[in-house]
Fold this protein.
Amino acid sequence: MSLISLEHLTVAYGGKTVLSDVNLAIESGEIVTVVGPNGSGKSTLLRSVIGALKPSRGAVKRAPGLRVGYVPQKLHIDPTLPLTVRRFLSLPARVSDARASEALEQAGAGDLAARQMSALSGGQFQRVLLARALLTDPQLLILDEATQGLDQPGSAAFYQRIEKVRQEVGCAVLMVSHELHVVMAASDRVVCLNGHVCCEGAPEHVASAPEYRALFGTGTQGALALYRHEHNHSHDQDCNHGHHHHEAAE
Amino acid sequence: MTLLDDFLIRAALAGIGVALAAAPLGCFVVWRRMAYFGDATAHASILGVALALSFDVSVFAGVLATALAMATTVSALAGRGYAMDTLLGVLAHSSLAFGLVAVSFLQGVRIDLMAYLFGDILAVGRGDLAVIWGGAALVLALLWWRWSALLTATLNPDLAHAAGIDPRREQMVLTLALALVVAVAIKVVGVLLIAAMLLIPAAAARPFAATPERMAVIAALLGMLAASGGLQLAFVFDTPAGPSIVCLAAALFAASSLAGLVLQRHRG
């Protein structure tokens, strides 16, 4: 059974339909990236998955007992709130020092435990958020625009870390981004969203799909090839485009 | 028993009780930027006083009910076209005005308006003391019980959702605690100065705290210091008690801000 499956998910708020009839299933261990222009419903999709938004129609089905780690888009911590990294990790559930430092190590934030959250740089902050999401030993890690505010080498390093974490923890990853080439390079499957699912499949495949090009242009393909790592397993593909794009990209 | 016969002892106990509950709750008011929200709730309670007197129910019950009604109205109206501070400004001042007008309609009962606007801590009786400490204990118990969930929801609503916490429920817990504090503090500092008891000790505690828990504890200590010290100052200089408490709290805030600056420079 899939970890999570969205079935004909339709979400409307403020009198506007943001997502209509989205079908998507996440299998264990895969990295799925949702791309789409601003206002395409990417964050709405993730917020429905974590249960912050109720579907107007359709359903979000979770595997029983699913453990989810969530890294929010941005977290503004008011400077009046004193909070060390270590204390932050024990919210809402207390965790042992051993577990906390293990998660910090995994997220590449091993030396930050005693620091104040408000004194962290953007990259450090994201790694701490990642560490917190890893505490529950998640089967599914959800990241919403996790690299906002990082420069490109910073985001590339962050996504490489995500891939490493996936290998170590064995979790599936569902993430949203508009940094197309960086993100697509780290994904097994890309879903192109614009209120509905335009197309989905392997990164190279989506990058060359006409629906995707209509949204983003053709400029990302060269960069994609640069960042792309070796993949020698196959993917389920829902779009009916030929496989020669795949070879062209690599 | 002789101890509680002394009106100064009763006043000090009342002030300390209010500070004990108001300061930790005030930390959330500061962290969540709800200062205006606290003000609006407090101002609305004068309407509660008028209603309680005209329907002949206890002032505590009347204030608690209006404060709750006010807080829920604000929560319900939030995000529906007006900016939060506009909405709160409108509601806070109009409810204060309606309350004052309503009080003027009360005939037969001569009430001392000043006592409700600025408090009348020296007139605290044994019954009041029981209400104050009961309310304070309830507020502290609420905060203790929901502490982690409240903090998580304060950080980020989506983070709370992902952890299975409903941020709206936590908001309701804070709203209830706020209404309780307003209801017990009205006798001590009055509606106009309740927000000061919430905000000032919390703000004064910030430079010395590295974790939220420590900030709440330090705020409670500073609040109690302000309450007992302010009362003594009022006795010595023959000044109004409620405002004297707030003046001392403000002086503590100024001193702590300066100390915070020095600490910061020293560290780095």
